[in-house]
Specification:
- About 35% of the residues lie in helices and about 20% in strands.
- It has a 4-stranded antiparallel sheet with strand order 1-8-3-4. The protein has a two-stranded antiparallel ribbon with strand order 2-5. Strands 6-7 form a two-stranded antiparallel sheet.
- It is flat and about 45 Å long.
- It is an alpha+beta fold.
- It has 6 helices and 8 strands, in the order βααααβαββαββββ.
- The chain has 2 domains: about 1-30 and about 130-220, TolA/TonB C-terminal domain; about 45-125, no CATH class.
Length: about 220
């Protein structure tokens, strides 16, 4: 027997300037739905950040994202991740201090969120709106439980987080895992979440696309 034990719909301000309800993974600020991308004005040359600590780089990237300077934020995040070429080596990564591992996970999550937003704009010509300031949150109206029949039991009891875009039709787009519960669980959760349907976010009486993070956990009885 399976039950969707927890579904937390989140809007992130902290992750990519997105607020939790986590990130990217909706941004606090006026909504944007025009087809033309706003001009990006970096607050400072990224080279000026080279002497900052890992935590300072992460905080600076979050600040740039909040100011809609995604390209500058990406440069800073890649600067941070570039300090750890061992990221592709899971065994070496696990030897890093827990605080550093968490920080690198947060940086990777921000990169994924920015890139998903940029891809959506490239594919559709539409900028994601930001929840708040007249933009409502999407509401899940149909959820599907992941099929955990072939998932190891230890994975089926772990909460994972996914980032997705809910388009103007209430359909999930660009769904990806940003906090893993294990490869088998990740695969089944992706299949399930892509079948979710939402009442879309609204602005001035019209549906608009927004980005969300959701947490999903499944208990097996």
């Amino acid at each position: 027997m399976r039950k969707l034990a927890a579904f937390v719909l989140a809007v992130m301000v902290a992750v990519a300037g997105y607020c939790t309800v986590g990130s990217a993974w909706a941004q606090d600020g006026p909504a944007q739905s025009e087809s033309a991308a706003p001009a990006e004005v970096p607050s400072q040359s990224p080279s000026a950040y080279a002497g900052l600590s890992d935590k300072e780089l992460l905080d600076k990237a979050a600040e740039e994202m909040k100011n809609d300077n995604d390209e500058t934020a990406l440069t800073i995040l890649h600067m941070l991740l570039g300090r750890y070429p061992l990221l592709q080596d899971e065994k070496r990564l696990r030897k890093l201090p827990g605080q550093t591992q968490t920080l690198l996970q947060q940086a990777s999550m921000k990169v994924a969120i920015i890139e998903a937003s940029q891809k959506y704009f490239a594919d559709t010509g539409v900028r994601l709106s930001k929840i708040g300031h007249g933009v409502s949150s999407p509401v899940a109206i149909h959820q599907v439980d992941p099929d955990v029949s072939n998932v190891p039991k230890n994975q089926s009891q772990t909460v994972e987080m996914l980032n997705l875009i809910v388009d103007e039709h209430g359909v999930p787009q660009y769904v990806h895992v940003i906090r893993s519960a294990g490869p088998e669980m990740d695969a089944q959760t992706l299949i399930a979440v892509k079948q979710y349907r939402f009442k879309p976010a609204m602005k001035d009486g019209k549906p608009v696309p927004v980005m969300l993070n959701i947490e999903v956990s499944v208990d097996r009885f």
